[in-house]
Amino acid sequence: MLELYFDDERETVGEEIKSLITNVLNHAAKKEGIQRQSEVSITFMSDAEIQEVNAQYRGKNQPTDVISFALEELSEGEVAIVSEEGMPTVLGDIIISIDTAKRQAEEYGHSMEREMGFLALHGFLHLLGYDHLTEEEEKEMFGRQQDILSSFGLER
C-alpha cells in the first residue's frame, strides 16, 4: 500500500482528483508487485514553477507536464538509502503542472481526471525505474502505462 503526501499550496486540485490519483497509484503498485509500505509525495505546480524546477534539475528551461525524482536512483558519489525494518520505503517525488495538464486534457479531448491520473502514473513508473530514452524503453513503459490505465478503467 502506498502512502501519498500531496502538496497543493494554491489549492488547485480537488479532493476527487487526489482520491483518483491515490487509487490509480495504489492499483499500479499492486500491478507492479510492490509489497512493502511505500511513500510518494505529489506536488502540484504552475507552468512557471515547474519550468524553474525543469531548468535547475534537467537543464531544460521550459515547462513540462510531469517530473519525477526517485530517491532510490543513485548518482555518482551518492550512497544508497537503506530503510529500517518496519519503516516505509520512500520512493520519491512527483511534480505535476496543473496548467499543462489542463491544456493537454483539452488537446487530447479527455477529462482532467484522466489526464491527472495518467500524469501521476507516468511519474510513478519513473520512480520505479521505467524510462523512455530509447525506443525499447519507451515501448515497455508506455505499454505498461496503457495496461495499468486499462485495468483501472481510466482510458481515453
What does this 3D model show about the protein?
The chain has one domain (about 1-150): Collagenase (Catalytic Domain), CATH 3.40.390.30. The chain has helices at about 15-30, 45-60, 100-110, 110-125, 135-150; strands spanning about 1-5, 40-45, 65-70, 90-95. Helix 1 (about 15-30) links the parallel strand 1 and strand 2. By secondary structure, the chain is of the alpha/beta class. The model is unreliable at about 75-85 (pLDDT under 50). About 45% of the residues lie in helices and about 20% in strands. The longest helix has 18 residues, at about 135-150. The radius of gyration is 15 Å and the shape is globular. The protein has a four-stranded mixed β-sheet. Helix 1 (about 15-30) crosses helix 4.
